[in-house]
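dumping this here so i dont lose it
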C-alpha cells in the first residue's frame, strides 16, 4: 500500500488574537498618558458683569481667605488668617502652609493675586501647583476699574 499524504483543506481565516493584544496594549498606554495630556486650569468665572467680592464668595465660612501673591519677579508671599504677608517664600513653603490651613479648615477660600507686570507663566505655575496640592477652587484677585 502506497503512502498518500493527507490533503489539507485551505482556510481563509484571520487570526485576530494578535490584533486584540495590540489593541489592549494601546488602550493601556492611552489610559496611562491621558492625565498628563490635559493642559489648563479650572477656573469658575462669575456669571455677572462685575466680579464678586471676597465677602460674597466667603459668606458660607467665617474664616478669612488664604491669599497667595506673586510679584513681578515671580517671588511668592502668603497671608493666612489676615496676618501680615510673609514674602520671599519658596513654592514648597507656600504649598505646605496652604495645605496645613486647608487641612484645619477645608472651606477656606484660596485667592491668588499678581502684580500687573507679573509674567503670565508665574501665575499659571502657582495655580498649577495649588491644583496639584489639592486645592479645588482658586480665585483670582483683581481691583475694580476706577471710572
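and the seq i came up w/
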Amino acid at each position: 500500500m502506497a503512502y498518500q499524504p493527507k490533503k489539507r483543506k485551505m482556510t481563509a481565516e484571520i487570526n485576530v488574537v494578535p490584533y486584540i493584544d495590540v489593541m489592549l496594549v494601546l488602550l493601556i498606554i492611552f489610559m496611562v498618558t491621558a492625565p498628563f495630556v490635559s493642559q489648563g486650569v479650572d477656573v469658575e468665572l462669575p456669571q455677572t458683569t462685575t466680579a464678586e467680592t471676597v465677602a460674597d464668595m466667603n459668606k458660607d465660612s467665617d474664616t478669612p481667605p488664604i491669599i497667595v501673591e506673586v510679584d513681578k519677579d515671580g517671588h511668592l508671599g502668603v497671608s493666612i488668617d489676615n496676618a501680615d504677608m510673609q514674602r520671599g517664600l519658596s513654592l514648597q513653603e507656600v504649598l505646605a502652609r496652604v495645605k496645613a490651613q486647608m487641612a484645619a479648615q477645608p472651606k477656606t477660600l484660596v485667592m491668588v493675586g499678581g502684580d500687573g507686570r507679573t509674567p503670565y507663566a508665574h501665575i499659571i505655575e502657582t495655580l498649577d501647583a495649588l491644583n496639584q496640592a489639592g486645592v479645588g477652587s482658586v480665585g483670582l484677585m483683581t481691583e475694580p476699574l476706577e471710572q
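The beta strands are 66-70, 76-79, 86-89, 110-114, 138-140.
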